Every structure is written in structure tokens, then in C-alpha cells.
Fold:
Amino acid sequence: MKKLINSPDSVIADALRGMAAAHPSLAVDLENRVVSRAGGATQGKVGLVSGGGSGHEPLHGGYVGYGMLDAAAPGEVYTSPVPDQILAATKAADGGAGVLHIVKNYTGDVLNFRMAAELADDDDIRVVSVVTNDDAAVEDSTYTAGRRGVGGTVFVEKIAGAAAEEGADLDTVAGIATHVNEVTRSFAIALHAGTVPAAGKPGFDLADDEVELGVGIHGEPGRERGSMAPVHDLVGYSLDVIHADRPLSGDLLVMLNGQGGTPLIELYGAFAEAAAWIEGHGARVARSLVGNYITSLDQQGFSISVLALDDDLLRLWDAPVATPALRWGR
Amino acid sequence: MAFDTATATAWITAAEAAVKADEARLTGLDAAIGDGDHGANMARGLSAALTNIAEKAPTTPGDVLVSAGRGIVAKTGGASGPLYGSAFRRAGKALGDAASVEAPELGAALEAALTAIKELGGANEGDKTMIDALAPAVAAFQAIAADGGPIAMAAAAAADAAEQGLAATIPLQARKGRASYLGPRSVGHEDPGAASTTLILRALAEVTA
Structure:
């Protein structure tokens, strides 16, 4: 394993120090491991908190700022943050109008955020939680832990963040976040697994002619293994799965996301295929993101997330945002 | 022998050593059907348990387990943190203020731990989780305790039952936790949570032997 690190133990602390040095708009609490807005909580505004394992950068710390999150709690690599840490983030985000927890549906994240919400309640901070579960690769049944929260989480953080910035109350912001999650679907394919620094080797092995279909964001294997194919076929397969789960029509927000180890030139090639597929199915790409927005360390591969836009969602998506990783209109 | 403050502390100390020694194996099991962090997380969590015990200097076995649970919740993260943390806390609370307990009380505390894990995680036997090791272990422990057997014998039987439960997870398809995303592909692997539970119960057998 060759990684640009000092040691596997210091990866997260070093990255947080770097975020603090690079972004004066952020306040980075190195002891509690909380990233929040430098100016503190906005009084009277609903606070937005998210968090989860590290290794998905820019998620979540890179989305702290005007129009998105108020605070983020990064855990160990691929491991959810702990309750005290989430509580510290919740306090940093609390402007007196309550706090929304945006939680990706993984057992560990859900349990730790639930414990943190109980602690916040003890401190008289009202918390509502929205659990994202947009991954079309997983059957939601009694035989699984439910669908995973993946790329759609970025849409939820942006759109709910815009609603909070407009002055919407906690229940309204939570309702919008829930709605965004419901109308979003994602699917991912990996070409080569990422390497957790402490593990030192890739999370799974793939032959040169194999791909992992339907991977999550933690390097966990997907639902099945497939044959390597041209990007046209891989993107088509992904959109077929999404379309079968929730038919695509009308104006869409489309994110073609890299998993951390795939060059932008390939992501643009993939987006060309996605745009052609969508047009061929009578829908329209109204807004798009192409790049690394929710990664899995150095994993090679991509995910596609698609959200069905209406006028309200489009307005909230277009609303000003100023974070390290998303920035427009301000 | 009775289960007192020294024995409880020795249990957590031995559990931490066992998990550290087997950290790579636990991580390997998790990499196969999860995300490959279980060894590191359990080592970190049980270290935190020991640190918290050293700081709080508990004077009853119940307090030792509560301190261990709080340390685990504070530092572990993932699902293991809340699940193991709540398990130890509830076991500790079940022991109450007693300075020393016998097999029936310790059996009841282990059952409280099992109940805590089931409530928090929503899993049951057969879902390919830590419960598949813990549930048969609790039953074996309580059966011997009910017959008036000593803690050493009950704990040894519990560790054996956990090992059998762990082996029985291999053909199961996971229905809870991250391995459930694999569906049929989770078959053929030991469950990492059941493996760490077995190590912790074997540590109890060793310190009470």
C-alpha cells in the first residue's frame, strides 16, 4: 500500500487540520472532530447536521457552509461517528430553531445518531432525523438492513439546506429532506476496490475483466459481479436498474459521481452516455453534477444519482450555496 | 469463585487482549462480507473500556461493566459501539450494587445484555449477527447456573456454545447489518460480530476458570 499519509492512525486528524488551514469559512474542532461554520450557528435558522464514516470526502465536511450543512461529524474511516461527537455537532448547529440530522441508512450510523438525538433532547435541543436510503441496488425487505443511503444524500443536504436558509421551520425542512430522498435513486459500479489505510489492502479483489455491480460507498461488495464492458454498457446497466425501480421522466437532476480513483475524463465520458440514455428515454437533464462528490477513498468506479425535479426542488437546488465543495450564486 | 470487581476487570482486560491478538482475523472476516473495520473498531472500543475503568475506578462488578460499556459507546462508532456498549451497560445495571455475585445473577446479567442487543439492533437468532453466538451462550450459562453449577463451568459452557453458534453462522444468509446487502453472497462466511462475541465469552471462561 502506498498512500499520501503520515500513518494510518493520523489520517483523519491530518485531513481535518488541512481543512481548517484551507478553509477559513470553517471552524474545525480537532478534539471533538466536528466541522462547523466559522461564524457559528445562525440564530433562528434550523440547523443541519450530517455525519458518517470518513473516506467519502467531500461528504460531509466539504458541504458545511451557507446554503447546506451547519455542522458535520466525521467518524473513523468507514465507521460512523460516536454519540458524543454527533451531540457536539448538534450543539454547534443549534440556532434555537431545532436541528435536522441527515443520516445515511447504515445500522451504525442510525444507532449512533439515535443515541445522540436522545442526548440532545436531554439538553433541550429539538432534533428530527431523516434517514436517506436511495440505493436502488438493495432490495428493501425484511431480509436486509434496508436500502443504503448513498449519492442522494448530497441532494438532500443541498436542497434541505436551501430550505432552512429561506427560513423554513424544522418540520418543513425535514419534510423536504424526506421528499428529496423519496424521489432520488442511485446505483454504483466499481472497477477496483479502495484501500482502507488501517487495512492496507483493497476491500475486495476484482480480476481485470470483472466489475462489482451495485456497490455501496464503503467498499462493501455489491449485489453481484459482472463482466467489464465499455462505459456505454456500464452506464446503461445502471440507469436500467434505476429506471426499473422508479421510472425516469421529465426534468432530472443527474449526478455522475466518481468514487475517488476515477479520472474526470472518464466521468465525463460516462456522463455523455448518461445524457444520451436519458434523452433516449424521453426525459431531460435539467441540472447536473460531474465529479467526486461522495467517494470511497481511492476506489475506481462511478455512481449515478437521479432526482425528479419539480419547480420547488429546482428553485431550492439553484439557491445560493457557499461550501468548500459546492459553490454557486453567491 | 464469585464474580467480583477484580474478576469483572480481569474479564474486560482479557477480552481486550484477545480482540487485539485476533484483530487481523476479525478484520478479514468483516472485509469478506462487510467493510473491513471490525477488528480495528473492537480493539479501539475495548481499549476505551479499559481506560474508562481505570479512570472511574469502579468498586462493584456492575460498575465495572457499566464503565466498560460507556467507554465502548464513546469511542467505537459503527454498529458495534452502541450494541456492545449497551450490552455491557445493561449487564452492569442488572448486577446492581452487589460486591460479588454468583452464577444465577451473572446469567441474568448476560441475558440483559442479549435483550439490549436485540432491542437496539432489531435482530434475532438466525439473522447472522452477534446474537447467533450470544443467545446460545446465555442459554448454556443459565442452564448450568439453574442446576447450581459454578460460574467457571457455566462460563466454559457458554464459550463452547458461542463457538458452535459462530460456526453455525457460516451457512446463514445475513438479514441484518451491512452483510445483508450481499444477499446470498453472505453465505459461506463466519459473521464477524459473532466472532468477536465468542472471543469476549471465551475471555470470561478463562478468567473465571
